[in-house]
UniProtKB/TrEMBL annotation:
Keyword ATP-binding belongs to the record: yes
InterPro entries named among the record's database cross-references: AAA+_ATPase, ABC1_TM_dom, ABC1_TM_sf, ABC_transporter-like_ATP-bd, ABC_transporter-like_CS, P-loop_NTPase, Type_1_exporter
Domain ABC transmembrane type-1, residue spans: 39-325
Membrane topology: Multi-pass membrane protein
Record keywords: ATP-binding, Membrane, Nucleotide-binding, Transmembrane, Transmembrane helix
Protein name: ABC transporter ATP-binding protein
Positions in coiled-coil regions: none
Domain ABC transporter, residue spans: 359-595
Region (Disordered) location: 1-20
Transmembrane regions: 38-59, 74-99, 154-174, 180-197, 263-281
Primary localisation category: membrane
Domain of life: Bacteria
Compartments it resides in: Cell membrane
Amino acid sequence: MHHDTPAGPPEDPDGTADRRPPELRRIVALFRPYRGRLAVVGALVAASSVVAVATPFLLREIIDTALPEARTGLLGLLALGMIAAAVLSSVFGVLQTLISTRVGQRVMHDLRTRVYSRLQEMPLAFFTRTRTGEVQSRIANDIGGMQATVTSTATSLVSNVTAVVATVVAMLALDWRLTLVSLALLPVFAAIARRVGRERRRITTQRQKQMAEMAAHVTESLSVSGILLGRTMGRSDSLTDAFSRESSNLVDLEVRASMAGRWRLATIGMIMAAIPALLYWSAGLMFQFSGTAPSIGTLVAFVTLQQGLLRPTVALLSTGVDVQASLALFQRIFEYLDLAPDITEPTEPVRLRRARGEVRLEEVTFSYDPGGAPPVLTAVDLAVPAGGSLAVVGATGSGKSTLGYLVPRLYDVTSGRVTIDGVDVRQLDFDSLARSVGVVSQETYLFHASVADNLRFARPDATAAELERACRAAHIHDHISGLPQGYDTLVGERGYRFSGGEKQRLALARTILRDPPVLILDEATSALDTRTERAVQASIDALAAGRTTITIAHRLSTVRDSDQIVVLGGGHVVERGTHEELLARDGHYAELLRRDAGRRESADAVS
């Protein structure tokens, strides 16, 4: 199966001086609607950092003044101040976590919704060349993998930067010489973190691709159809082995992603933890060579600050590594957001209140790959008056279904035009087109929901009485009424609790409920046995009454009464006329009819 290869993010059109990577600019833009709440978070972070660095100064006063001078009143106030600072810092931390998590979850929601909305706009061709599991993995795994980055990394970044800045300022205020000693190795630490980040980003990209592969395998093999195919072909064990290999590959990548740079970052932590010893040694050297060593209180306060610097500095380095890894996830999501829909609504669309139903194809040529593949349809001219019926027949691969897809604009013509009531379908708004054209195909799709919910997908506001009328017209009401829960019965995954004929009649009832003036029947009975076909055909006749009907037919017994029959061959119209006219001509249609009769006789003999 082919994978879709989405286009990358667009380039900066104006070449502005903003040198941030495109992903970073777009990530920042995701948070823009919530800048007010983020400003509150920033204020809380700043307040928390100021309160945190106040504690070492209180400690210095306790050691240098309150204790040596036995000032118990001052000692009590300073101790209370340290307790109050701890309480305030904790409260500010909880509030900033609450607000930032809410903002992060809203950003995640926006991303999920935008990706889903963009995929809804993509043409049918996109889904024919993209595995379902790949699409699901982008929405679930990739966006889910960004959760920690989106919900906490931004706040962590601001919090730790503020803490580092406030701590360094406080350290300078205490002793600038000790500050230089403490910060001497920071450039080395930053270089190590950058290298680790690049490594994590590369591994994360590989990991997400592997997760998408595994999701695609699960989606295909654990669907109802996949289980049936695996068991009937005796391939369940091989499918399990294939899944085991995919999962084993993921294990290796997960371990590599988790361990990437851990030793380097651990080395940074060990060095920073050893810096207090360096500070004590430096203070001793100052006293020996200059006689101006810091006081005991200053030294203890400084070491406390330096130890406080350890946590935000390591966190900042780790955050940089996490951001690098998350950029790979954002890039995969932005690839989907940057997909350009082939079929778009015009800027000033035409809106039809209620179409009469006249359908025309004027010199229509269509190719699935206009740049290379030969056209599937070439210069097709057809006209179906409002309320009329047209049958399109032909051998497999002649372009019958493709012709049917062009009317509801599931694909756009390569040249020529398709019109409804004289309006090019490319000029209609999507709602008008969906209201005007109904499609019933042999591939009936039902959601894992109740019968009523599946019917109301066509018309959410439909009453119970309207559901019943539609089902009576489709000759399925009596069957539904006989079910233990009636219209509240779950249809099962893809409708597997219902037979092919029952599912087809449910689909017809759903279309009757929508009441489109134009109806496309794409081989709606070709997958059914002869007996079931007759029952479903009665439902189709009820549905087609008074509507413009285009029937894509495989079994020719269903098209005898059509106003016009068109025979396609190699993408061209090779014959047209009524059933009697084409029989009398004894050409392509007559030959197709003889073959169809032979197949039906064989099927009846077997049954």
